[in-house]
Amino acid sequence: MKGKIQKVVVAYSGGLDTSVIVRWLIETYSCEVITFTADLGQGEELDGIEEKAVRTGASRAYVEDLREEFVREYVFPVLMANTVYEGGYLLGTSLARPLISKYLVDIAAREGADAVAHGATGKGNDQVRFELAAYALNPNIQVVAPWREWNLDSREALIAYADRHGIPVPVTKERPYSTDRNLFHISFEGGILEDPWQAPPEEMFVLSVSPEKAPDRPTDVEIDFQDGIPTAVNGKTLSPAALLAELNRLGGKNGVGRVDLVENRFVGMKSRGVYETPGGTILHAAHRAVESLTMDREVMHLRDSLMPRFAELVYNGFWFSPEMALLQSTMAETQTGVTGTARIRLYKGNCTVTGRRAEGSLYHPGFATFEADQVYDQKDAEGFIRLHALRLRIRNMLEK
């Protein structure tokens, strides 16, 4: 049961849904509405966003450039864990939600607001991510989720509401799918994509050309890492956001980073998503390549065994949980010494490691060579094998 709401901070994108939400909140709760927009790399989508919010009824509109914080504090920690959800999703949307919630709660505290609000529907994961983060950061905050309360259940209903209330509806071509964009990726869901047999239309893609139309000559790129964190591209040191933007550019023009999958939502249903993550795809390949030289085998295998759990926590919205804090510190510890350079070849949708080097490399040709050496006595392998075979031999003898 909600208490009296006098002021609410709403996560605002400037689209039809959140434009209607601003007016609906004012009308339904007779409250003051403040909007917050996170610049996570949406580009031209943010043009005139403050003016739109105020025109729609907001008393104040915050716009914060969070691109560097997003990549540094959210993308890179997940990259260090090589985090992939269900074998394909690099978690671009999932990573943005806790950061947006963090600022929603912070602005609510600054403004003395009673509640925060978001435009996520009652069927998706984002409602969970927004609200778990908000409650973790402020246990007493109230959350308003209009899609779970109102009867505006279609785009037509939203447009009609906007017309009745004089809300300036963004003039954009209607897309037969929904999108979400940030510096790490862009996602496409719903509409024509709800049929998992339906191939995504080529005109849908934003960050990448099709592999068929990519250049006929490959692009080689070198990425430097320092303790698991990418620091430079082709020898040029870049900030986190600038580095990811450059890899997006290189990957996109070579058709790298498209993924089409059916995933299991936290709320219980399956959904089909299509994603473009060009820079992230390159970083995952490069990071693994440097790890292959510098990371102890047992540390790597233990880290990899924890990755699916880490991915679930990110996907399900538990970014600000104690178990996430534990796993993040563990993952960061595994990256000590993961320092070196990977060379990646980009060609018509492919992202291939062609070289890796590191001063602290654990790889030495002399240890693996077939030539005589003083490090490894090949006769020792006989006892090693017989000891590991003992339980297998005993099992066979008992069965017979």
Give the SSE map.
Blueprint: E1 7-11, H1 16-29, E2 32-39, H2 49-56, E3 60-65, H3 67-80, H4 92-111, E4 115-117, H5 126-137, E5 142-144, H6 155-164, E6 178-181, E7 186-189, E8 219-226, E9 229-233, E10 236-237, H7 240-253, E11 258-264, E12 270-276, H8 278-294, H9 297-316, H10 322-334, E13 340-347, E14 350-357, H11 365-368, H12 380-399
Parallel strand pairs: 1-2, 1-4, 2-3, 4-5
Antiparallel strand pairs: 6-7, 7-12, 8-9, 8-13, 9-10, 11-12, 13-14
Helix pairs in contact: 1-6, 3-7, 4-5, 7-8, 9-10
Summarize, please.
This protein is of the alpha/beta class and 400 residues long. It has helices spanning 16-29, 49-56, 67-80, 92-111, 126-137, 155-164, 240-253, 278-294, 297-316, 322-334, 365-368, 380-399, and strands spanning 7-11, 32-39, 60-65, 115-117, 142-144, 178-181, 186-189, 219-226, 229-233, 236-237, 258-264, 270-276, 340-347, 350-357.
